[in-house]
Amino acid sequence: MEPQQQTQPATGSVEEPAAVSSATAAPQQQPIQGGAVSLPQDSTGVFTSQGVGLAPSQQTFDSNGVFSPTGMMALPDQHAMAGMNGAATEHPANGNTISADEIALYDRQIRLWGMKAQKKIQAANVLLITMKALANEIAKNLVLAGIGSLTLVDDQNVSEADLGAQFFLSEENIGQNRAEAASREIQKLNPRVRVIADSGSIMEKGVSYFSAFDIVIATDLNATTLAFINTATRLHHRQFYAAGSHGYYGYIFCDLIEHDFVLQRDKANVSTNVGQESRTRFVTDVKTQKEGGKTIELVAKRELYSTWDLAAEASALPAEYLKSPRRLRAVTPFLSCLRALWSFEQFHNRIPGHNRQDLEYFTKSATQCHSLLSLPGDTLNSEILRSFLQNIGSEIAPVTAVLGGELAQDVINVLGQNQQPIQNMVIFDGNKMEANQYALHPEGPLGLAQLEPANPMMPAMIPTMMPMGDPQMGNPQMGEQQMGNPHMFPMGQPNMVHQGAL
Q: In what ranges is there compositional bias, type Low complexity (predicted)?
């Protein structure tokens, strides 16, 4: 029997659907035909049980989607709990304090994921590289959640093309450094967050530069640069995200190295056993506790990850896909297209042009990538290749909102250590409003070396008593900075649904 595709229920409540308007694309080199991209005329905002997003009129999102398109985040409720007169509230569990003003500011998200997670958020230092439309969305969501600091690195200046989908920029910023121009508007979202702009080149930073951050997020960079950054984050045991958008298409990749988290759920009739759950996931501890007349099961898990260069080039699809012709046919062909693009960038140090030579090279490369993934040849056709090539280098605001919202939410979940994280590649197709998740890891000895736990399994990682919605567990880390810091979404942001590849 083929494994069932599972989804996670939406978390939180959506108080008011966010308005999403179409925007023109901002191509870097070759523009999409006509120079502008708009949503189909029959597209409307749709509110479903999975969230708020864009879809054709009278149509809900396909259940095969990894997450429901959302990405717009409400401001924290600044009026809740305002009667506490600013007095500091002490939390003996960790010896730190959080003021009543901060409790009032972040009230809704504290109710969603708890005080301990919020304190981790406020201690987190995040590095965000390349301030284009996707990074704008990520920065907005993390700053509104109240992270400790956000460092923006971008050595490019604002151009007219940047104004099409980047809401932190205006015409008066043309000619200014993108990081510096965006930082001024980002700071206004939440004055409690330290926003730092760096106009230097990320490739000129030493490897030790990355040790100062808890999480590094690299957006819209070529494959060679992403491999360099991921190598540096691995050396300093820092968690790494890569993401990019090309018109209607995009991706998210994460390398969390070795990530521990705790899931809370009602205890089932069948007990959860400690041990290996999948190729990348282990159950390290299980505890139960009584709460509200129910028995709650607390399950500590550990996920293992591969590096960017292995996932982007050499890794195969999971075994359960290879055993199922139906699942292979369902794999998005844009995974092959993206791999071909990354290969082209590494070889030519640029994106494909619209000349015959580049098109032939890209088509041959995409076909080879498709074959190496053991995918049916007829699922990659000329229409798909043409659509992908026309979208390369452009930005569409609704697409970057979806990707940025998903990535920021996963960062928050990872730092809070209370949700299943991405494992390890998400491919988004804006034409279908679907995003599929694939666990891409190498086979053979290399795969075994990548997915071997560096730390021994720790059986006593779950506290005996843990408030619902606020799990906490130990996570031994290396380096000067603590890695277990969280960024979380405010209440009202529905939890995006994942179609697990494991």
A: 12-37
131-153: pLDDT as tens digits: 999 999 999 999 999 999 999 99
**CB distance 264 to 218 below 8 Å:** no
Q: How confident is the model at residue 202 (pLDDT cuts 50, 70, 90)?
A: very high
Q: What is the pLDDT of residues 476-492, one digit of tens each?
A: 333 333 333 333 333 23
Radius of gyration of the chain (CA): 22
**In which residue are the tokens 């609704």 written?**
398
Look at residues 288, 282, 226 and name the one whose alpha carbon lies nearest to residue 468. Answer: 288
- Whole-angstrom distance, CA of residue 138 vs CA of residue 412: 11
Classify residue 374 as left (phi > 0), alpha (psi -120 to 50) or beta: left
Residue 77 is predicted with a pLDDT of: 39
d(CA 470, CA 113): 6
d(CA 444, CA 252): 25
Residue 258 has pLDDT above 60, yes or no: yes
398: left (phi over 0), alpha (psi -120 to 50) or beta: alpha
- CA separation (Å) from 369 to 175, 279, 332, 376? 39, 23, 12, 11
Cβ atoms of 438 and 284 within 8 Å: the answer is: no
Alpha helices in 206-348 (DSSP H): 223-235, 308-309, 319-322, 325-330, 334-348
Q: What pLDDT sits at residue 96?
A: 54
- Residue the block writes with tokens 């023109």: 24
DSSP 211: G
Exposed, middle or buried, 174 (CB in 10 Å: 0-12/13-18/19+)?
middle
pLDDT band at 177 (very low <50, low <70, confident <90, very high): very high
Residue 305 has pLDDT above 50, yes or no: yes
For CA atoms 105, 108, 109, 114, the dihedral sign is positive
Mean pLDDT (the chain) is: 76
The C-alpha atoms of residue 496 and residue 502 are separated, in whole angstroms, by 17
Rounded to a whole number of angstroms, the distance between the first and last alpha carbons of the chain is 15
CA 250, CA 403: separation in Å to the nearest integer?
A: 7
- Residue 269: phi and psi, rounded to 5, are -65, -30
**pLDDT of 101 strictly over 70:** yes
Torsion over CA: 431, 45, 247, 135 (sign): negative
The secondary structure element, H or E, covering residue 245 is: strand 239-246
Q: What mean pLDDT comes out for the span 241-254? A: 98
Q: Is the dihedral of CA 452, 454, 459, 465 positive or negative?
A: negative
Instruction: Look at residues 79, 73, 40 and name the one whose alpha carbon lies nearest to residue 57.
Output: 40
Q: 62 exposed, middle or buried (CB, 10 Å; 0-12, 13-18, 19+)? A: exposed
